[in-house]
Amino acid sequence: MTIWPTPVLDLLAVGGDRPVFEDGDRVVTAAEMSTMIRRAAAGLRARGIGPGRGVALRLGVGAEAFAATIAAFAVGARVCGLPAGLTAAQREHLLSRDDAVPIDEVAFGDDEPLAAAGRPGDVARIIYTSGSTGRPKGCAQTYAAMSAAWAPCPDRWPPAIAQLAERLDRYLVFGSLSSQVMLEYGILTLAAGGVLVAARSPAFPDAFVRHRATASVITVGKLHQLVRSQRANPVDLSGLGALMVSGSPLEPGRLREALDVLGPVVFHGYGQTETGMISMATPGEMPDSVGRPPAAVSLRFEDGELYVRTPAQASFYWGDPEESAKVFTGGWVRTRDLASLGEDGYLRLLGRARDVIIVQATLVCAGPIERVLATADAVAEAYVVGRPDDETGEAIHAFVVPVTGREPDPAELRALVAARLGPLAAPKTVTVIERVPLTPSGKPDKAALAA
Fold this sequence. Notes:
The chain has 2 domains: 6-351, ANL, N-terminal domain (Rossmann fold), CATH 3.40.50.12780; 356-450, ANL, C-terminal domain (GMP Synthetase, Chain A, domain 3), CATH 3.30.300.30. 30% of the residues lie in helices and 28% in strands. It has 14 helices and 24 strands. α2 packs across α3 and α9 crosses α10. One of its GO terms (molecular function) is long-chain fatty acid-CoA ligase activity. InterPro entries: AMP-bd_C, AMP-bd_C_sf, AMP-binding_CS, AMP-dep_synth/lig_dom, ANL_N_sf, ATP-dep_AMP-bd_enzyme.
């Protein structure tokens, strides 16, 4: 087995003067990045970071951040990425339970020889969910799993990925390279011969024009905004080749509109933090599907719920055996999504087997929000639903039944949720109702509330 990130180290080692990273006026060649990674690895080793040790990288998207990220894997560390939107208490809790060394600035050492030191069974990466459950879950991916990933190895690319790779000349990176999706497509870009282009202010469509980007990751909400912007005030996006929609399903009508306005550039698919990519659809494929799963991905269905097995999937939730047992079962990952596989080979999502809302590409669970709202003195009952939203993909809407004689304050309730669970969990609206509608069986009718 070739241990991750050896393919990336090898690719950069022979790249010479080929540009691989662009940050403003600064262009970093493959040779320079290779040296930077070796020196960042030496700096990590000087701090006692090596196999089995945890690091929490909070470094943004600059060239040094990329070098430090790859270097942390190269020394065999357990690399932790903290999601945006966590409360201070949630962030400190994660750092303490993972015993990870927080690294906010790259310390470079001498230029020393470097070989990947990761051990196959060790955890290579912990990717934390948003914390919308009140307790962020850390998806633990081993070095063996990361070594089986397709991104750095063209001979492993599924057909849809091979088609995407042709369009990754200038891939826009923003936010944080600890993002699973941002880093994965970045590695794919390097393997495809492209350049990573750092965007400090990733406002679309301006960032595409300013950085001459040919590709980027985009959420459903941002895609809606881009389509509206192009209809109202079109700019020249003729150089744009690929937008990889991430985080939440894209409705067929919205997909057709995006293709009509932006051209054949929208790649959309399906995956989870626990599994990585499950399927991807190219711009010309079935708009009512999420594409064809590649041969390396196995699917099975139980009562309509999808279970998957992917080469690079996580193995468990860090420090959470109870939740791990519910999701990671016998080598399969329970997606908690309802789906079907057609005779045409296309995977179609039919709904969710859990009560979640996807806000800005982040899963937010309804239950914890309802429990927080119910702690307010003026609230007797609380119910949360999701609805499609042009700004955020989906939005959270809360309904509260007041305590007799009390009048809940919607602004205070939104602030309460934000303080406890983070800003992404704060409801967009809070509506006071006299009583909750019921289904014929007497259960709260959330479908009626959402309607």
